[in-house]
Design a protein that fits this description.
This protein is of the alpha+beta class and 172 residues long. Helices cover 34% and strands 15% of the residues. It binds flavin mononucleotide (FMN). The site of flavin mononucleotide has 13 residues, from loops.
């Protein structure tokens, strides 16, 4: 599959099977995140793998959007490593970097037949408190991942409509 076909076939999976993710596949997913570009190669990501019953239960207290996934990747930014943009004082690229890392992992997972859904419907302060994260580690998003359940399907309202390129792209 070429990349565009892969991207077009991906959808947010919100129903997962119990089948565990194989170690080699998880390693590939994490490796895809590791090679993502980050500002000045700062690599400010910190990825927590939540897969114990206890950790998944904690994730479930933060949001309804865990959807019974066997693994949740809690993608955080280490603010002490994030790049502060010299051209724009006060602007840090940390969250942007973590989003690229997360996107790489999402797409590698899909290439391996493993579904995921990007989740930001939670409170970052609450997440940090729930998992006792250090002060410099800030949750950015959750990525529940796992093999899609047999009944998994794209959400009819959310997945299929995309704004036309004429609306979202403009040549200046
Ligand atoms: C920043 C961001 C936050 C999101 N938060 C949630 C969420 O909290 N719960 C959820 O079920 N889906 C969430 N989604 C998934 C989107 O709803 C989904 O990507 C979008 O509707 C397009 O559907 P598709 O991914 O199936 O193509 C989020 C996606 C992004 C990029």
């Amino acid at each position: 599959m070429d990349f565009l076909e892969l991207a077009e076939s991906r959808y947010s999976v919100r129903s997962f099977s119990d089948k565990p993710i194989e170690r080699e596949k998880m390693d590939k997913i994490l490796r895809a995140g590791q090679v993502a570009p980050t500002a000045i190669n700062s690599q400010p990501q910190k990825i927590y793998i939540l897969k114990s019953k206890e950790a998944l239960a904690k994730a479930g207290t933060l949001t309804k959007s865990v959807y019974g996934a066997p693994v949740v990747l809690m993608c955080c930014v280490d603010t002490s490593r994030a790049c502060n943009c010299a051209a724009e004082p006060g602007y840090s690229t940390g969250e942007m970097d973590v989003c690229i890392v997360c996107t790489h992992m999402m797409m590698e997972a899909w290439d391996l037949g493993i579904g995921s859904v990007w989740v930001r419907g939670f409170n970052a302060d609450q997440a940090a408190k729930t998992f006792g994260l250090p002060e410099n580690i800030r949750p950015v998003c959750l990525l529940p991942i796992g093999y899609p359940a047999e009944n998994a399907a794209p959400n009819a309202q959310k997945h299929f409509s995309r704004r036309p390129l004429e609306d979202t792209v403009e040549e200046l």
